[in-house]
Amino acid sequence: MTKKILAVLAHPDDESFGLGGTLALYNQRGCETYYVCATRGE
Asked: Which of 17, 1, 18, 2 is nearest to 27 (CA)?
């Protein structure tokens, strides 16, 4: 069974500064990774 990760973030660049490395690591290890941005970046 494939593990899935969903990150819900407030701004488009939040994954770059906070979770980008972690999401990339889990993705390389076979997890499906997704993120939802709650704003349009305004």
From this structure: 2
- Report residue 19 as tokens: 């979770």
Q: How many CA atoms within 13 Å lie on the side-chain side of 18?
A: 10
CB 34, CB 4: distance < 8 Å: yes
Q: Please compute, for residue 25, the number of CA atoms within 13 A of its CA located in the half-sphere on the CB side.
A: 5
CB 9 within 8 A of CB 36: yes
pLDDT tens by residue, 1-42: 899 999 998 888 877 788 889 999 999 999 999 999 998 877
